[in-house]
Amino acid sequence: MTIQWFPGHMTRAKRQIQEKLKLIDIAIELLDARVPLSSRNPMVDDILQGKPRLIVLNKSDLADPRATEQWMAYFAHEGHECVAVDSSTGTRVNEIPIKAKEILHEKIAKQIAKGMNPRAVRGLIVGIPNVGKSTLINRLAGRNIAATGDKPGVTKGQQWIKVGTEMELLDTPGILWPKFEDQLVGYRLAMTGAIREQILNIDDIAFFAVRELAGRYWKVLKERYELDNAPSDPEDNEQIVQVMEDIGRKRGCLMGGGRVDLEKASGIILRDLRAGKLGRITLEAPYDDMPAREV
Ligand code: GDP
């Protein structure tokens, strides 16, 4: 389902969102709580043209709660309201209409002062593919609305979905492209499953994952795969391959001659990581001195 983002697609996606901005009061920028920067569109400020905005950190059930708190503080510092939710179960999604009203309170107060009956706040969800836009729309709507899948070039008739009595959402989200020119971003998105293995090699993604985890989250790897030897230098590629081989051996991924089947081991590592089996992990810290999670 990964989209090829050609320049024409990007222009069209931007134009489609900007058309929708005319209809709405507030944009809901959806980010992945595990990779809040990598899941951000590089031009989002330009695209949203100063529209009031609520940042929603989705998949917070899979993210390190302490890191999520830091990210919320970070976005608040940048002047944005922010909530962290889990759209798959609905945890805290009810805060979205409440926060949206708070952000728009001046506009609403002016309407009331003019004797107008304020109408429901109108919102649009925007975000990169796989960040959970359709899941969140369905949650907020309380029923199945949006088809999962992304076709940036395709428009269909848009409808307003009621979210309680005080908010309405456009049923089709705004689809943004990721910062794919940055290799680090590509690997981080691939680790979360947002970019499929057809584009990046599974061994490479798993290697990158183990290298990222071997530092701050070593204890998590150690406990899950009963590893003994921590790499003395998580930047040393050979030591990281060694860790992958240790994991493969523990999981019985062996080929002839006792060699480790790295591709099989890679599949296990990525499946565990994406399913949250390694615990709640955030791959990006707003501040470099973020302490390690205690396990
Ligand atoms: P979209 O491309 O942005 O519309 O993303 P989808 O709504 O299709 O979601 C992509 C995947 O992420 C699906 O497998 C969802 O079940 C999953 N997902 C969405 N939100 C959450 C969440 O908050 N927590 C977890 N664990 N998974 C989620």
From TrEMBL:
<keyword id="KW-0963">Cytoplasm</keyword>
<dbReference type="GO" id="GO:0042254">
    <property type="term" value="P:ribosome biogenesis"/>
</dbReference>
<keyword id="KW-0547">Nucleotide-binding</keyword>
<keyword id="KW-0378">Hydrolase</keyword>
<keyword id="KW-0342">GTP-binding</keyword>
<dbReference type="InterPro" id="IPR016478">
    <property type="entry name" value="GTPase_MTG1"/>
</dbReference>
<dbReference type="InterPro" id="IPR019991">
    <property type="entry name" value="GTP-bd_ribosome_bgen"/>
</dbReference>
<comment type="function">
    <text>Required for a late step of 50S ribosomal subunit assembly. Has GTPase activity.</text>
</comment>
<dbReference type="GO" id="GO:0006412">
    <property type="term" value="P:translation"/>
</dbReference>
<dbReference type="InterPro" id="IPR030378">
    <property type="entry name" value="G_CP_dom"/>
</dbReference>
<dbReference type="GO" id="GO:0005737">
    <property type="term" value="C:cytoplasm"/>
</dbReference>
<feature type="binding site">
    <location>
        <position position="174"/>
    </location>
    <ligand>
        <name>GTP</name>
    </ligand>
</feature>
<dbReference type="GO" id="GO:0003723">
    <property type="term" value="F:RNA binding"/>
</dbReference>
<dbReference type="InterPro" id="IPR027417">
    <property type="entry name" value="P-loop_NTPase"/>
</dbReference>
<feature type="binding site">
    <location>
        <begin position="130"/>
        <end position="135"/>
    </location>
    <ligand>
        <name>GTP</name>
    </ligand>
</feature>
<protein>
    <recommendedName>
        <fullName>Ribosome biogenesis GTPase A</fullName>
    </recommendedName>
</protein>
<feature type="domain" description="CP-type G">
    <location>
        <begin position="14"/>
        <end position="178"/>
    </location>
</feature>
<dbReference type="Pfam" id="PF01926">
    <property type="entry name" value="MMR_HSR1"/>
</dbReference>
<dbReference type="InterPro" id="IPR023179">
    <property type="entry name" value="GTP-bd_ortho_bundle_sf"/>
</dbReference>
<feature type="binding site">
    <location>
        <begin position="58"/>
        <end position="61"/>
    </location>
    <ligand>
        <name>GTP</name>
    </ligand>
</feature>
<dbReference type="GO" id="GO:0005525">
    <property type="term" value="F:GTP binding"/>
</dbReference>
<comment type="similarity">
    <text>Belongs to the TRAFAC class YlqF/YawG GTPase family. MTG1 subfamily.</text>
</comment>
<keyword id="KW-0694">RNA-binding</keyword>
<dbReference type="InterPro" id="IPR006073">
    <property type="entry name" value="GTP-bd"/>
</dbReference>
<keyword id="KW-0690">Ribosome biogenesis</keyword>
<dbReference type="GO" id="GO:0003924">
    <property type="term" value="F:GTPase activity"/>
</dbReference>
